[in-house]
Design brief:
The complex is a heterodimer of chains A (about 150) and B (about 110). Chain A is of the alpha+beta class and about 150 residues long. Helices cover about 25% and strands about 40% of the residues of chain A. Chain B has a single domain, classed as Arc Repressor Mutant, subunit A. Chain B is built from five helices and two strands. Chain B starts with a helix and ends with a helix. Classes of the chains: A alpha+beta (about 150), B mainly alpha (about 110).
Chain lengths: ~150, ~110
């Protein structure tokens, strides 16, 4: 497992045997975004990807589910620091995603963080607080499962 | 009914409300019982419970003169499911990126 839950913050992590510039290019060029964004479950038509790579610029794409349903996703770049950090918001959900790219050994470490809380609450305290809630929840579910 | 995720996440942005949720995860409690460990008035606790009730995380029932609060664990679980969904999507996407980088590198 290379992803972990830390409070409200999602962290996914990968090491790639490719340099930061290549990983950055993959995340910012429409052709390669189309190649990987849908993962194994959806496809992204290459012509649907638009990238306006600057803070305030829009990043949009269509995802096509196996059943054929097409969904347009729109994001707005918040920060663009090639080739190390890319942050974008999804205006519909208020979700902020930050992709961090670092040279490591003969390749690249990539990290993805997501935060949904309002900006003024994006503090370590808030993150730890929700983590403790989810721990309490797990304990609660576990205990109820035992007595059921 | 679909949970109001935005309202729930916003409600949990407050440290007092997170503490109340953590306390209610242990057992049901009245506003008076919840007020004791906090340096807050029952009125302030009532306000916070109201916010948690409106977003569906807490419910209050009547037992004679007592009105105990109960955590809606099912609703709270939906929040963690939402986060898990995001994790799965990104795991899948980053695997596909690894494959894409490998294919792209081989083609050079």
């Amino acid at each position: 497992m290379t992803a972990e839950l830390r409070g409200d913050e999602l962290i996914a992590r990968r090491h790639y045997p490719a340099g930061p510039e290549r990983v950055w290019a993959a995340f910012t060029s429409p052709a390669s975004i189309a190649a990987f964004w849908g993962g194994s479950h959806a496809t992204v038509p290459a012509g649907s990807v638009t990238v306006d790579l600057r803070p305030g610029g829009e990043f949009a794409l269509d995802t096509r589910a196996p059943g054929g349903a097409i969904r347009r996703l729109r994001f707005v770049y918040v920060s663009v620091a090639a080739p190390h950090e890319l942050a974008f918001d999804e205006p519909v959900t208020g979700l902020r995603t930050t992709v961090t790219i670092r040279a490591a050994g003969d390749g690249t470490d990539l990290t993805v963080h997501q935060r949904r809380l309002p900006p003024e609450l994006r503090t370590a305290q808030a993150t730890d607080g929700l983590a403790s809630i989810l721990e309490a929840l797990a304990t609660h579910l576990h205990r109820n499962g035992e007595t059921a | 009914m679909a949970p109001d995720l935005d309202a729930a996440f916003a409600a949990l942005g407050d440290p007092v409300r997170r503490s109340l949720v953590a306390r209610l995860a242990l057992s049901d409690a009245t506003v008076g019982e919840l007020a004791e460990p906090f340096a807050l008035t029952p009125q302030a606790i009532s306000h916070h419970i109201g916010v948690l009730r409106r977003c569906g995380l807490v419910e209050q029932r009547r037992e004679g003169t007592r009105r105990p609060c109960r955590l809606r664990v099912d609703q709270l679980a939906l929040l963690s499911t939402w986060i898990d969904d995001q994790r799965r999507a990104w795991d899948d996407r980053l695997d596909a990126l690894g494959q894409h980088l490998a294919d792209d590198g081989a083609g050079r």
